[in-house]
Structure prediction request, 528 residues.
Amino acid sequence: MKALSNWKRIRRTPYQTLAAIFMIAITLFVLSIFLLIAAISSAVISYFESKPQITVFFQETVDKSQIDAISGRLQGTGKVASLIYVSKDEALKIYQEQNKNDPLLLEMVTADILPESIEVSTYSPSQLTEIAEILKSEKGIDEVVFQKDVVDTLISWTSTIRKMGIVFLVFLLAATFFILLTSIGMKIANRKDEIEILKLVGATPWYIRRPFIAEGLAYGVMGAFISWIIASGIVLYAQPYMTSFLQGIPPLALFSISTFSFHIWPPNIYLFLGLFLTLELAGITIGLLGSLLAVSRYMKYYI
Amino acid sequence: MIRFDDVSKKYPSNVIALDDFSCTIDKGEFVFLVGPSGAGKSTVLRLLIHDLMPTKGSIFFHDWELNTLPSNKVPYLRRKIGFVFQDFKLLQDRTVFENISVALEILGKSKEEIQERIKEILDTVHLEKKALYFPRQLSLGEQQRVAVGRAIAGDIEVLLADEPTGNLDPKTSWEILKIINEINKKEITIIMATHNVDIVNSLKKRVIALSYGKKTRDEKKSKYS
Prediction:
């Protein structure tokens, strides 16, 4: 058994093996793209969700004391999580930062023409309507902007992508399992003489199964590695386009543990490392499950 | 050590291969199973390694009752019982060394232990110089000796041989028998199913004769018929 290593056996039947490895690679590649889109979009959504939910712009005629009074009334409801006042000067700074590459736009604008505003967040989205009701009855308000509309659009997009991704992945996973099953099943059938002898001399069923399971695992590890290379290549290739698409949005953190935060965008070592570990884990799971399935299915005839 | 108590075996095709067969075989005995083809000789041997289950009766190996032996114990039963076939059952893509090594690797022995043990075995079966040959490079007699070597490689107490000389000429058959007799001298019980009248008559060992699944004779120091 040991005399013929897995590697030798893989070399002797390269086509079946390659089919199994590539199928795992394709499945995991689709999985990785799907995971990346899901992670980036959820980070984008949580970024927008962390932004103030309502921005209230005031008319020119309104002075600071009136704004303070309105702010006071809003906070008096007990539903306001945070409330930030943005003065004309601060508004100008934000404007200058956003348009720093366009001197013409900068020249035309002074602090005077920009409105004062307050940015309000509530504890839960359902409280937004109550705040909106209050704002309706107040005087001196020019415009009220809800972030909710932006977030809703994003959520509906991502849920569509998620559903399509899951359906696609289920099909690919099924195909992968069938290919693993036939590929390992054929190998078991090809070695039935050896299996018969092993049984006769008293090998335990696990001793006989082990090399086949190891082979499935090897397929998983190799398939995952190939998919990682392709997915990483695509991430690096897409970086310039994505950067312009995500302009104005700070580095996206998927999660944070104390001082370390796992940034999903822009691409960094942790992103690739996380992707690698995820794909290897998925590859090992697929290889293990597929070979266990094959072994329990085909060994019945030989063990 | 081995006991058959009223054992019957009926195949699904309703052929009765063994009919109320009883016998006791002690440690170190040498037993010939004789009888025409289809008399039930192979069935007796296959029942002993739990390859077949009896339809009726019980079979004991030491205090293991094979009918109720849990399937996870079967490998350990087989490690105590070596088996030699008429058609050798060697792996054609492995060398002599590798063919014998299979029986030792499953026991989890180290490389050094395996090498040492195989050297001893090749000595016993007179194949010292053929370790790296493939089965097709060997004569039939040599191939059967490899099979015997594999069967005794582990720590066995019983050697079962099913027509081991069936494919061999008389001279080669005698070579195999000499080796099996040597193995028997090491207190290993031998049960050999055979048609070979000459061998049975000249060795004068215990003979159990079967006919249509029934035991017709069981005599010590006996002859073929």
In short: The radius of gyration of chain B is 17 Å. The helical segments of chain B are 41-48, 74-78, 96-105, 111-124, 140-153, 170-185, 197-203. The domain at 2-217 of chain B is CATH 3.40.50.300 (Rossmann fold).
